[in-house]
Design goal:
The complex is a heterodimer. Chain A is α/β, with parallel strands linked by helices. Chain A contains twelve helices and 14 strands. Chain B has one domain: Thiamin diphosphate (ThDP)-binding fold, Pyr/PP domains (Rossmann fold, 3-Layer(aba) Sandwich), CATH 3.40.50.970. Chain B has a five-stranded parallel beta sheet, with helices on both faces. A two-stranded antiparallel ribbon of chain B has the order 4-5. In chain B, helix 9 links the parallel strand 6 and strand 7 (236-241). Chain B is globular, with a radius of gyration of 17 Å. The chains are: A alpha/beta, B alpha/beta.
């Protein structure tokens, strides 16, 4: 049975663009900094309405991160935007010292994250960014699932006081969450109630988890489906409550197994409630060129993989 | 206002503070600290418009200072304490477990006077540029000062910042390079030459001024000149010639004490060369 209606197809980056514009209208201290990818990361809406609050840094991400830290010191709420690879791995030390350790109110917007960047290939397909960012003390890490949730996440990110990494993507994907839903940083969203298996998904893989849930339900399984948009701080309560009920878990994400959502869930469960766990994630290999949907299939990041892992983990109970 | 004689007296005391701080914990970076002491004293006691007793992170309505080469924290801590940001006696806690005076500057211990962590090199100029741009956006006409090391300009980010500041016309910013031509592995000429440093900054679109970092008359005159150049569409770079380890004969002009504390015997020799003018902490 259909659990969620598709309200259209849009990219999450456009949700960021609309959210940034809204955040800029709400708070005049919000500023945007970009490193030569204004249109790609969807900062153009903000730039057009607030040209004096938009800063073009050129291709110099390290400088951009530290300039933003200085602006935050003076009371601004800077969003820095570029591809997720350049927004995290390339400038890890600037983020570590000038933003996370210095506890600056800087928002790092990483677009084109993960495999679904597609044809550009592995140099641009970062799948360790969630891990890099979640390891930093003080850093909040958010990975919304669709256009509507990305817009809400962006507005919430602007309102939050402190450093945030906000990860979103390039491809056009189904929109299935409500535009006026509650978005609370650190609070997971229970999408489906069930009792046989817990599926915890983040980002683009939430839609794949929805599709997997529908199939599993048709086959007679009862699925507890959780949409985790905040990787850190992790909503431990919603996970533990679900797992106590189902006794097994599948995590799903467009990220390396090392350092991602599954890694965080595994740590939580190993320390507090050891439970059979399977992960849908990329196991220690770089990406490559291809169409987004094709890559997700080749790397096992789709509803079929989630279904297979769910059956495998239920068998381990 | 402080005259030259008063500044000289403060410098002598700050140098004593530096030697005592690093010697007592057998760690820290005295060489660069001693080298920029005269400049830092002039900056905090003569040049900056600042409010030590009502410090805020934002620094609205006052000049703000960023130290990029955070390893010379001893001189900054001493000057901050001596100018009233926090109790002088707290200098005795430098690098000791639980201290607010961490090995490299931090904001997480809420030490008054510090707005940004530094230590990993090459970031401070960018941070200062960001603060300067925000000041402009806020309608705040005060200035931003940044101090960095000369070897530090081997970091690529410095040149990203150099390119951006001139392109974006960040003309409420005065950057100062401590030009002692020394770094850990030897002289800058030996390690990775800085070449025509003045020519490089000039080519990047900055107004460049040369200054003698051990002559208070020159420091005051050149920093006033730097300030007079602000507001003309260009950032200002002051290349400040100094001697690493200045003020203590066996530490001066060598990189030996870049990151090494004097022994307790050497401490006694050093302190004999530095008058206690304001009272030790």
């Amino acid at each position: 049975m259909k659990r969620f209606e598709i309200k259209g197809n849009k990219d999450t980056r456009s949700g960021f663009g609309e959210g940034l514009l809204e955040a800029g209208r709400i708070n005049s201290e919000v500023v945007a900094l970009c490193a030569d990818l204004t249109g790609s990361v969807r900062m153009d809406l903000f730039k057009n309405e607030f040209p004096a609050r938009f800063y073009q840094l050129g291709i110099s991400e390290a400088n951009m991160a530290s300039v933003a830290a200085g602006m935050a010191t003076a009371g601004k709420v800077p969003f820095i935007g570029t591809f997720a690879n350049f927004a995290t791995g390339r400038i890890y030390d600037q983020i570590r010292q000038s933003i996370a350790y210095s506890h600056k109110n800087v928002k790092i917007a990483g677009s084109h994250a993960g495999l679904t960047l597609g044809e550009d290939g592995a140099t641009h397909q970062i799948m360790e960014d969630l891990g890099l960012m979640k390891m930093l003390p003080n850093m909040v890490v958010i990975n919304p699932c669709d256009h509507n949730q990305t817009k809400l996440a962006t507005i919430a990110t602007a309102a939050y006081e402190g450093p945030v990494y906000l990860r979103y993507g390039r491809p056009v994907v189904p929109v299935f969450t409500e535009p006026d839903a509650d978005f609370v940083i650190g609070k997971g969203v229970k999408m489906v109630e069930g009792s046989d298996v817990t599926i915890i998904a983040t980002g683009h893989l939430v839609w794949e988890a929805v599709l997997a849930t529908e199939v599993l339900e048709e086959q007679g399984y009862s699925v507890d489906l959780i949409n985790i948009h905040t990787i850190k701080p992790l909503d431990k309560d919603i996970i533990l409550e679900s797992v106590k009920k189902t006794g097994c878990v599948v995590t799903a994400e467009e990220h390396f197994m090392n350092g991602g959502l599954g890694d965080s869930v595994a740590q939580l469960l190993a320390l507090t409630l050891p439970t059979p766990l399977e992960m849908v994630a990329v196991d220690d290999r770089f990406g490559e060129s291809g169409k987004p949907a094709e890559l997700l299939e080749r790397y096992g990041l789709n509803s079929e993989s989630i279904i297979a892992k769910a059956k495998a983990v239920m068998a381990r109970k | 206002m402080n005259g030259i004689k008063e500044l000289e007296q403060i410098s002598s005391q700050v140098r004593r503070d530096i030697v005592r701080m690093v010697a007592d914990v057998s760690s820290g970076h005295p060489g660069g600290s001693l080298g920029v002491t005269d400049f830092m004293v002039a900056l905090y006691f003569k040049i900056l418009k600042h409010n030590p007793k009502t410090f805020t992170i934002e620094g609205a309505g006052e000049d703000v200072f960023y130290l990029s080469n955070g390893h010379i924290s001893p001189v900054w801590y001493s000057v901050l304490a001596r100018s009233g940001y926090f109790p002088v006696k707290e200098l005795s806690t430098f690098r000791i477990y639980g201290t607010r005076l961490q090995g490299h500057p931090t904001v997480c211990t809420k030490l008054s006077g510090i707005r940004m962590a530094s230590g990993s090199l090459g970031q401070g100029l960018s941070c200062g540029i960001g603060h300067a741009q925000a000041k402009k956006a806020n309608g705040d006409t005060n200035s931003v000062y940044v101090l960095m090391g000369d070897g530090e300009t081997q970091e690529g980010q410095v040149w990203e910042a150099a390119m951006y500041a001139s392109a974006a016309k960040v003309d409420n910013l005065i950057a100062v390079i401590d030009w002692n031509n020394q770094q850990i592995d030897g002289s800058c000429d030996e390690v990775l030459t800085l070449g025509d440093l003045a020519g490089r900054w000039s080519a990047f679109g900055w107004d460049v001024i040369k200054m003698d970092g051990h002559n208070f008359d020159d420091i005051i005159e050149k920093m006033a000149l730097a300030k007079s150049k602000l507001g003309n569409g260009k950032p200002v770079m002051v290349l400040m010639k100094t001697d690493m380890g200045r003020g203590v004969d066996f530490m001066c002009g060598t990189n030996e004490f870049h990151g090494k504390a004097p022994s307790l015997d050497q401490k006694a020799v050093a302190l004999a060369q530095l008058d206690e003018t304001l009272g030790d902490y």
